[in-house]
Amino acid sequence: MPLAARLTGPVRRVLNPLVLRVAGRWGSLVVLEHVGRRTGAVRRTPLMAFRSGDVVTVALTYGPDVQWLRNVRAAGGCRMLLRGRVLALGPPRAVPAAVALPRVAPVQRALLRWPIRCADYVELPVLGGR
């Protein structure tokens, strides 16, 4: 089980609101904007993501059974604030770590392997951006 999955409650209540203030401006911290499947409410989720050409790879640090991923799959896409740009993204597709990790900078790759122990990744095609 990824380390982050064990800390879900405290992270969501305390850390996520703080991270949302700085995410999306630089580095690999991004803000994913998606629509709730049942409520239709717009949700903002901080994530670790990496762009490589026309694809954004997202590390599933909480594992593959997360609400934001279900919402994005149901909607067929989402928007993401990445390095100051808003990107329109298509439907996510699971990719193995062997495909995802080479797209990640060495220091972040090491963190994803340990202590985070992230084994699951998805990629989303970039459909457009401003």
Automatic annotation (TrEMBL):
Domain of life the protein comes from: Bacteria
One Pfam family named in its UniProt record: F420H2_quin_red
InterPro entries: F420H2_quin_Rdtase, Split_barrel_FMN-bd
Single GO MF annotation: oxidoreductase activity
Protein name: Deazaflavin-dependent oxidoreductase (Nitroreductase family)
Organism of provenance: Cellulomonas hominis
